[in-house]
Amino acid sequence: MSAYAVGHLRAAAQHEDIFVYMERIQATLAPFGGQFLVHGTGVEALEGEWHGNLVVIGFPDMAKARDWYDSEAYQEILPLRTRHVAGEVVLVEGVAPGYDAADTAARLRQRHRAA
């Protein structure tokens, strides 16, 4: 099942480290099948407030996503970003093909009633 690295990154002053990080990150993704789906774009907040940019990187599965994040190549460049850009990064597993939220609601309802 696919997995995603999702980053909510705050705006930061431009810095040479950020440019180097951006130039080098693609090469760290390739060995793990990672690809940018959303990269540094602003968002349109429909509910609540959102400050910063969104980055979404897709991977074939959670193991590949974790392996990428933990890889020597990525860990080597990570401080180039974290020293200058605040934010949160999470790994999240996608849903299976054919996923239906109504099916999940029915299971949750059944568990709730049984409790």
UniProtKB/TrEMBL annotation:
Pfam families: DUF1330 (PF07045). Residues 2-95 form the DUF1330 domain. It comes from the Bacteria. InterPro entries: Dimeric_a/b-barrel, DUF1330. PANTHER family: BLR0684 PROTEIN, PTHR41521. This is DUF1330 domain-containing protein. It comes from Streptomyces chryseus. The lineage of its organism: Bacteria, Bacillati, Actinomycetota, Actinomycetes, Kitasatosporales.
